[in-house]
């Protein structure tokens, strides 16, 4: 796939992540996973959102989303997290007993070229990476399994077409390990919420969205004597 500095038509693609507070398990049973998927489905009906990929894990989740308008992402994510927290606390009888998530969700923009495929692969092989399944497509709470069904199961959210063609042999590709450099780059983007793409696109996107690319050092600048 040739490199491109354009923004995907109809908006920026985002990887979105949130983790449970204190590494607690937020999905303890199949019903917990299915309830979250139903929440995603219902949120999408009221808040337009193109869901490109996702993976729900025992104590966190990954979403790859493609909003069309500026407010779509925040509206969709608010609908999901507020409903999920309310349901989770009510079901366990722990309303008002602290945070379910470690904080606000994290996000970073993704370029719609080979970087998009890399992030999709990262998301869809997450359960395999964590040794929860032998094959990535066997994890029933992820988009790889859902697309493999060639239908939308009950309670599952509808998936949108990708901005790029789905490569032939995609499932086998997802099942292959990712390089350390790919994983490190994605980890940095998660940590710092910086765009993931080629340097020029990354720079342009960061400037347009007011994102700081360089790390700031703490403390006052050193003098020559120091």
Overall strand count? 4
Strand order of the largest sheet: 2-3-1-4
Task: Report the principal-axis shape.
Answer: globular
How much helical structure, as a percent, in the residues? 25-40%
The assigned structural class equals alpha+beta
Taking the sheet with the most strands, its summary is: 4 strands, antiparallel
Count of helical stretches: 8
CA distance, first residue to last residue: 49 Å
Describe the structure.
- With 226 residues, the chain is an alpha+beta fold.
- It has helices at 30-46, 72-92, 114-124, 126-129, 143-148, 170-174, 180-192, 199-209, and strands at residues 13-19, 50-57, 60-66, 106-110.
- A four-stranded antiparallel β-sheet has the order 2-3-1-4, with helices on one face.
- A hairpin with a 2-residue loop joins β2 (50-57) and β3.
- α1 (30-46) runs antiparallel to α2 (72-92).
- The longest helix is centred in the middle third of the chain and has 21 residues, at 72-92.
- It starts with 12 loop residues before the first strand and ends in a 17-residue tail after the last helix.
